[in-house]
## 1
Amino acid sequence: MNKEKEIETVTLMVRRYCCGVHWTRGEALCPACNALLEYA
Ligand SMILES: [Zn+2]
């Protein structure tokens, strides 16, 4: 699996998780999930 696809997949997962657990709306992620993405 190439890196870009991997990042895309992780982004989608985090976005779904953030929306469900942290009640963020639309494209925005909470700071905690943004930090998680940058780490990944
Ligand atoms: Zn979040």
## 2
Amino acid sequence: MMLKADKVTKAYGGKRILQDASFHIGKGEFVSIMGTSGEGKSTFARIICGTVRPDTGSISFEGTPLWHTGTYHPASNYAIQLIPQQPFASLDPRQTITAALMEPLLFHKISRSRSEAQARAHELLSQMHLGPELFSRRPGELSGGQAQRALIARSLTLTPKLLIADEATSMLDVSSQTDIINIFRTLVEKEHISVLLISHDQPLVESVSQRIYQLSHGKLMEI
Ligand SMILES: Nc1ncnc2c1ncn2[C@@H]1O[C@H](COP(=O)(O)OP(=O)(O)O)[C@@H](O)[C@H]1O
Ligand SMILES: [Mg+2]
């Protein structure tokens, strides 16, 4: 199993958000967590990504605990990437989208030269259906859907194994939403990346997921 959560519990100031939540996702699986607003979906995503500490329970990635004695140990090689709800908040407004992708490629020495990084950036942007006319644009010159696709392209620079999309399409119009969901589908089918889609949108979740969990009153149940 790629990611496995076992009996995770979390309370905020005495208010129980997650109660013995267990969950798993395998390689190349498209799994969703559904639930109405305020049920704790983002809290669960943040526990996986290390920004919220669970009270009890265990979470492991490829057999290695992510949380151990209260400390988060990130999966190696940035294997887990979060796609947030608000793409514009995660992109530098002064940077072109090509530069936004070249930065991690050069910083992590994935590309050996600026020209190689630029070529890889353009390749990833094209894969996300962002054409050459958009390569030099800054976030302010993009639609929400285009910005979200640029952000997905940026997360792919680090060849993640698991993408967590926390309401990543809920700010978008229906056609941009379909675009992004189709991109996730292709990543699952062609690259065997795992996608965890977190959404309150039941028809959307039911149309794309291989398995679905429902989060309700702190309980995470497979349906
Ligand atoms: N840092 C925090 N401190 C206190 N309460 C929080 C915090 N983060 C979230 N909550 C509360 O926990 C509940 C679940 O929040 P959240 O995980 O964001 O739900 P969802 O993503 O399903 O809408 C909400 O009632 C929210 O107000
Ligand atoms: Mg949320």
